[in-house]
Amino acid sequence: MDNGLVLWMVILASGALTFGLRWSFIHALGGREIPPTLMRLLRYVPPAVLAALVVPAILRPDGPIDLSLDNHRLIAGAFALVAAVATRSVFGTLAVGMGALWIVNYLFP
Predict the structure, then answer these.
(1) What is the tally of structural domains in the chain?
(2) How far is C-alpha 107 from the chain's CA centre?
């Protein structure tokens, strides 16, 4: 089979699967009230997803876990954590974290 055809088949199958999964939840819950317990649990999904993306990038920048001071992302992440707790601002946290990473990378190449 042609590689282009296989690629299009994979794209279409992925799209159909994604659509089917989302449609099934919309169809199953459409017109029904979501229980309060489920609503409380759903509030934790965005922070959990963000942590699942950020923590490995900070602790394992090049493969194995690196907790040394040579890990510039760990240092910048510590500054970002302090900014997040102090400001409770997403923009402030991102600005402090990225600024700290740039400064640490500049000072310690």
Answers:
(1) 2
(2) 28
Q: Please indicate, yes or no, whether residues 27 and 42 belong to a single structural domain of this protein.
A: no
CB 43, CB 63: distance < 8 Å: no
- Cβ neighbours around 96 below 10 Å, total: 20
* Nearest residue to 61 via CA among 77, 50, 49, 47: 77
In this prediction, residue 11 has a pLDDT band, given cuts at 50, 70 and 90, of very high
Say how far apart CA 40 and CA 23 lie, in whole Å: 23
Buried b (16+ CB within 10 A) or exposed e, 14-26: eeeeeeeeeeeee
pLDDT band of 96, cuts 50, 70, 90: very high
